[in-house]
Amino acid sequence: MSIWNPPRLLDQAVLSLLRDEALAISALEYLPIELFPPLFMEAFYGSCRETLKAMVQAWPFVRLPLGGLMEMPHLGTLQAMLDGLDVLLSQKDQPRRCKLQVLDLRNTGQDFWRMWSGSSVQVSSSSLEEPVAKKRPRTHQTLGPLEVFIELHINGRTMDGFLAYLMRWVEERKASIHLCCKKLKIESMPRDNIMKILSMVQLDCVEEVRVHCTWRLSSLAVFAPLLGQMSNMQRLLLSHTDISTLEDQEEQHVVQITSQFLRLHYLQDLFLESAFFLEGCLDQMLRCLTNPLDTLGITHCLLTNSDLIHLSQCPNISQLKGLDLSGVTLTYSSPKLLPGLLEKVAATLQELYLDQCGIMDSQLEAILPALSHCFQLNFFSIRGNFLSMAIMDKMLRHTSALPSLCQELYPVPQESFSSLGILQMGRLAQCRAELLEILKDLGRPRTIWISSSPCPHCGEDTFNHPEPITYGSNTSA
């Protein structure tokens, strides 16, 4: 079945019902299922709160994707919905027509509304039936816990009105509401406030977490067990920027934090930014990983030779597809450590970031043999390092046989700078011309990107203005 334009009769029926809210509410018991979504949409956009409240109690689908209708969180609409749910939850048995099990406040479900409103989307008849729950026996069924899905972004010292109202409502109904969150982002809020909010969330629902905090290590250690309760977490980014003086019992705090990884059996992607507490004890965290990672980022922190040795020996990094060590100073590390690490992951590595690592010619030359065996590599960035034209020539030749490599970001060659470290645009133009000649000599279409820091256009210490050097018909970059 295809729906290209909403039937005029359906539109007229919806508008007619909403002219009289009392009539619309009384008709819900007998209203055809096909009319529920378009009626709900008209009631939502027309702010017919009593109709919305009543429709929640008779919703004939398992899921109500309310977030797909809200460009911005709307407190009034939320209050009407929750009032309707209160009536529903107060009943011992679920009403005959109501199949509602999930209220989804995330920005999803647009396809559901398009499908049932009759917009110009082709859908099959089976798709029309999917949102409806399987037929149940005629006897009333006990109402189980209602799942409420949200995308939780905790920032600021206080919650916005929408989130604060929802949290108060959930807290008063813990026994009958499961608050679920697949993606969780935490930043710039006192630890105790965050812990109170998370106490109302079903933590085993969380799959992706981003934590940006400036807490003392002792505070992070108190918070860490909550991460351990997120047993289905697949992706974790932890940015900890507190570099205050050492605390008493620091080793105990590190153990408290790293031991939580023992409970994360589904973790695939791990990013640790500015995690200075890992210096000299990275092995503690690595030992607690329970399964192979797909992506590992350890950035903008200090690692010792011992840390790098343990990293290269860790069995759970042998299948990495992505490795990011940007901002980890490798200037004084043993020249054998980074090559050993790349050899460990060469068979699977697809993305490699070594930006601002203090890498110089001798260190880059040491990794070229291992780099040339990363046949799955498609992205390589080594910006912000001080490299000569001679070593960049060698690097381009060593990587020219990598069949998947399509995005390459390099620093401005050191010959482009004056003795005072000032970028000379004329010298840069000459280096670019020489790099293009190297690409021509290698003989295959290829694009590389050259990025200076600081940027000569805006003066910022960023990589926002990389410029391409292209040979041949390569358009993938």
UniProtKB/TrEMBL annotation:
- Going by the entry's taxonomy, the superkingdom of the source organism is recorded as Eukaryota
Q: Name one GO biological process term.
A: negative regulation of apoptotic process
Please tell me the species this chain comes from.
Bison bison bison
Whether Repeat counts among this entry's keywords is yes
List, alphabetically, the InterPro entries matched. Answer: LRR_dom_sf (IPR032675), LRRC14/PRAME (IPR050694), PRAME (IPR026271)
Q: Which family does it belong to?
A: Belongs to the PRAME family.
Give me the Gene Ontology terms describing cellular component.
Answer: cytoplasm
Q: What is this protein called?
A: Melanoma antigen preferentially expressed in tumors-like
Key words of the record = Leucine-rich repeat, Repeat
